[in-house]
Fold:
Amino acid sequence: MIQPVRLLILTVLCMFAIGRGWAAAESSGSIHYDVVVIGSEPEGIAAALAAAREGQRTLLVDEKAEIGGLFTLGELNSLDLNLSPDGRLLNKGIFEEFYGSIGRRTSFDTKRAGEVFRSKLAAEPNLTVRLRAGDIRPIAGHAKVRALEVTGSEGPEYITAGMYIDATADADAAYDAGAAFTFGQEDFRGSRETMCATLVFELQNVDWKKVQEVQRQDGDPNTGADAYSAWGYPQMKAYRPADHGIRVRALNLGRQEDGRVLVNALQLLGVDGTNPEQRKAAMERGKRELPSVIRFMHALPGLKQAELTRTASSLYIRETRHLVGEYRLTLEDVLENRDFPDRIAFGSYPVDIQRSRWGPDLIIGNPAQFAVPLRSLIPKGWTNLLVASRSASYDSLAHGSARVVPLGMSAAEGAGLAAAYANRSGLTLQDLAHDPKQVHASRIQARLNDKGAGLAPIPPYKDDTRSHWAFPGVKWLRDRAVISGGYKNDYRLDEPAEASSLWTWAEGAALASRKQEPVIPETIRTKAKLARSDIELFLQQNGWPSPKGAGVTAKHWQEDTVVTNGLLYMIITEAYR
Structure:
């Protein structure tokens, strides 16, 4: 913890630096735009297009030399679509424009994606794109961005705007400006550990017809294939990497126009995606591992002749910072299909928590449809700054669903339109966030709907889990990634509990609540099913009483003849909560 005197010194130095930067901007003159978007990820492109189409003089600025970010540099070419239960595409507007331009393919050609993005940006007369911009540093104070200092080969220049949108993947500009963030999984685990990174790689000589045949006929409901994408080959989990910080998951394959295939499967653990040296080292580790990965793949049908042609030029980083915004989207918001009056985007992708050094891949649950509020893009207290990327104000578990690009592009379009609306109306983002009657949100939604966003209220969806007597235990444990419901939201509440579940869930609950590791009697570790006597022994050895009183857990403890998962959820929750 920073001592008070040191904190005062740091505050004074920070204000001095801000003052000098702002004075330099004023004295040297500055270039002014209505809206400045920092970062040319797909989300940044959507935000810039939305603002420019509203007549705003807009700048899209990036240090990188190429637009498209994760799609063109990270080479992630398979789309994680958000669909309603009846199969409707939930992300419309600018995302659907892009989707249509690539042929509505589930996987796309990355070069074609870059061409589509460049064409759309070039078509907007109000939009200036500036790449290779050099170092970009915000000058900010009192929860307001005053200017951007952009330092290139010819020295610094200053850019001012009415509104700023940080669309960098890691929200670098907002972080540098002083907005508050959590990092990785520290919001529920107290750890900066993040989901794994991935090095996407490309193969040639893939027998795509054979790949399709195998994935469609293997009898596994979680595998499949279409003309452009395939997801399967769970045999890859048997691969034993030479690097202990690498894992390989089942393959996600995306076919390009030249017949080559991009592969998302190589998991790199323990990578801080905001650290350039760690990113570089992780890429080298991944490249060293790939030859043996390819040799292992040669045993799989359709991949017997596959050859490595290249790797992506940047890593696919799934998780780093999480903004502390005017509203923080929670796991309950996602899995309970919540709507918001200031909705600007919808999601429905499963809560996909990829492997970390803390644990395996998990599908925590699978929402039907949830909304993202505008407030989740506004840093808490800030007046002219939005964050439109996977680093927006989502809890780390909610981010497992909300991080996907189609949702991000829809939210970013909302950010661009909100910035334009605020500028035209002479309002700050705080005015939008704290409008008690949500008049401004309604107008922004109406404008988005004029452009085809489809932001209708979410219909009610049935959720039997919420009505179960043990739902409080489900909620507490899944909020800490101790249990997962999978793609079917099946928490097996009324099934007999297994002995292995007791120690797995108890140890997970202890870790998540930062309490002492539980004592697990050896007699329990060797059993299959749990008996009441096993639970009594477990509670006794850990110094906890058996459930008593008039509560619902005590009632089921007294009346049920079988120890179900639901009863075990509640016992563990009440022990550790």
